[in-house]
Amino acid sequence: MLKTLFPTLARFRFAVQLLMLFVTVYGSVIVGNYLADKLSNALPALSCAYDPMNGGYCVLVPTQHILHHRIGEAIVRAQTLTFQMVLPLLMTFASFFAFFFVLGKAFCGWVCPLGTMQEWIGRLGRRFQLGLRRFAPGDLGEVKRVRPVKWLILVGLVFLLPLLTGLGVTPHSLGNPYCDLCPSRIATTLLTGNTHELALRLGDHASFALGAIANVLVGFTLVGALAIRQPFCRICPLLAFNALFQRLSPLRLAKPSRDKCGNCRICTEACPMDIPEISEQEGRKAYHEDCTLCGRCAEYCPQERVIQLKWGPWALFSSRRDYYKKKVQRELPDGTVKPLRFVKNAGQAASADV
What we know:
Elements: H1 2-5, H2 9-40, H3 60-76, H4 83-103, H5 106-111, H6 113-127, H7 140-166, H8 177-181, H9 183-191, H10 205-224, H11 237-244, E1 251-254, H12 266-270, H13 277-280, H14 296-299, E2 308-311, E3 314-318, H15 321-330, H16 346-353
Antiparallel strand pairs: 1-2, 2-3
């Protein structure tokens, strides 16, 4: 039945992305504010429009708020850190792990609304034949220069600055700096017709600067996605946060051995994150921290059962040669697809004029 409804993994993932984009943007309207308040803190995906009545939209928000308002201020007052202070943070992580255990980093590739928007905008770019900008195939040096950025943002903006604000070292407006910069906050709320997140706050210099940077960042993310695959995902601190715990989830990418691998590097070409390890390594090293579990490497591997998406001992999807042949008839590994019928290239137009 599932094969009939979704003949390819990509179509099934597209259906999940479409559903989750609706849920993460308009979900609170359906379930009500009370249930939305219970779910939004635990959802390990960027979903700033999900629950407008609540301050916690993903696990990064309560993490910053608790470090700022609870732990940091408690140290200033020289109070003993008790379970009353730490327990809310522990509960946030516990509920996060409950979700994360089931789907792991697939939240990045299947659920996150900003990731979905970037991917769909990228498809428009390929449809209209805009030039694709990417790292040189196999150039691990270029990839390595970008990879640390997400960790710096996670440590600096999600953990360090909120804690320093709680200690009174930095201004109050830096209490949740990452959320003031996060492009998902602006992009997803724009989908609801709400434009207030675009407004710059003039109360102090820090708030104004964060707002200005956020507007530039969301513009770069949405426009840049036309020519760069998943531009913000590469520096997203939530991807780094999920990578810390990726071994705790049974859902994973598996490439047990390179014995059957043809070293064609098609899997790396298909990867929207340009991960060279998937074609060069095996075992855990092939499942890199940048992986979002989108499954494209498995879809475009032309070898039988070399790359798999697995949950525990069960293979949910395995690379197959016949699947690969059908897939490349519609879309090439780098995402290039046939142009829309009403779009003609210069050669076709000239022929028509003659």
